[in-house]
Amino acid sequence: MTSDQTSRRAFLGGAGAVALATKAGAGPARKVVRIGGRPARVIDVHGHCAFKAVEPIIAGTPLARTIQPLVIFGPQRIAEMDRRGIDVQVLTVNFFWWYAADEALADRIVRTHDEGLAELAAAYPGRVVALSSVSLQHPQLAARQLERAVRDLGHKGASIGGHVAGESPTTARYDPFWAKCQELDVPVFMHPNSAANIAREGAWAGRGGVDNIIGNPLETTLFLSRMIFDGVFDRFPRLKLCAAHGGGYLPSYLGRSDAACVRDGADCANAKPPSAYFKGQILVDSMVFSEEGLRHLAAEVGPSQIVYGSDLPYVWPDTIDIIASSRHFTDAQKTAMLGGNLQRLLKLG
User: For residue 82, which of 30, 217, 242, 343 is within the disulfide window of CB 3.0 to 4.6 Å?
Assistant: First the structure.
């Protein structure tokens, strides 16, 4: 992520952060989301955080940066969760700038993140669970990091970006990481960062913040397509992956993807149509921001494959009420999308 992108995101979140502080000071009551008159547990797969403790580790290296206060998790985030009715938030450190680090530095960075996440889970019991944002550029190391995070620290899975310096993590080189995810039976949350692996230099210049609005779902779309067409889901049939931002554009164009492998020269490694992987292995979050968008997403992938996501602390329309008030779903489907699907995926009590 460029400094301009970081500054823009911090600016967009700043107004929200002020609002959160005001709300927190007022001590708002915790909202209870009800479906069919009964309380529904809301679990959020898409929460950002970062840790100041990493700054001295990367000082004096090309990776040096200042961690913005906005993404530091604390009482203000809990207050906003209470205001929205979020019972549990899944936290990840997911800008993935450390993908440029060598093994020794990358391990120190990820260890710092993982231990910080474990401390947050202990400080806010029942409100926070964590995913380890591993060093995917070193797949063997990433597998070891994930095992430590899950077995020793209680993390519930992994979080990754959509590429490693432009390389898709779908070749055999990355199989040790995917194999470890399957062995541990934990899911992977994929979060993009403006499709730097796709866009030419200067492509995102101009109005509208299109690096985020278009770039993020575009990166997710390419990542999922590579995971399918390169056969990763076939090599690891018990692998579960959740893609941010409604799975990008792929769910809306699955018919075209399903037709891809019958064309000359497609050279697909997948054994099933792309749409079939959305019936079990691929989940998506709810960040499509409209009732019709959610209805269409569910029509393509099924309500069982949708989980709630907020993108806190960044300011986006929230989808809790869109799910809860929708005319298109049963109470059981709404309850599942708000929390039940993710509760099963992460094996939460």
Answer: 30
For residues 151 and 115, give the distance between their C-alpha atoms in angstroms, rounded to a whole number: 13
Instruction: Quote the CA–CA distance of 306 and 302 in Å, as a whole number.
Output: 7
Q: Indicate the pairing of strand 34-35 with strand 38-39.
A: antiparallel
Rounded to a whole number of angstroms, the distance between the first and last alpha carbons of the chain is 36
Angstrom CA distances, 239 to 21, 58, 157, 189, 317, stand at: 39, 33, 11, 11, 30
Around 124, how many Cα atoms within 13 Å sit in the side-chain half-sphere?
A: 22
pLDDT the model gives residue 333: 98
Structure tokens at 74: 């604390």
Cα–Cα dist 94/131, whole Å: 10
H/E element, 278: none
Quote the pLDDT of residue 24.
38
Query: What region, left, alpha or beta, does residue 209 occupy, with left being phi > 0 and alpha being psi -120 to 50 degrees?
Result: left
- Give the model confidence (pLDDT) of 293-349 as tens digits: 999 999 999 999 999 999 999 999 999 999 999 999 999 999 999 999 999 999 998
Which pLDDT value is given to residue 27? 57
**What is the spatial distance between Cα 42 and Cα 337, in angstroms, rounded to a whole number?**
9
Q: CA 336 to CA 40: how far, in whole Å?
A: 9
H/E stretch holding 114: helix 103-123
Q: DSSP E strands: which ranges in the chain?
A: 34-35, 38-39, 43-48, 88-92, 128-130, 158-160, 188-190, 241-243, 282-285, 306-307
User: From CA 71, how far away is CA 51, in angstroms rounded?
Assistant: 8
Q: What parts of the chain have a pLDDT lower than 70? A: 1-28
Amino acid of residue 178: W
State the residue for tokens 């959020």: 44
Both tokens assigned to 259: 């037709």
Rounded Cα distance, 51 and 333, in Å: 36
Please tell me whether residue 164 adopts helix, strand or coil conformation: strand
Cα–chain center distance at 152: 22
pTM higher than 0.70, yes or no? yes
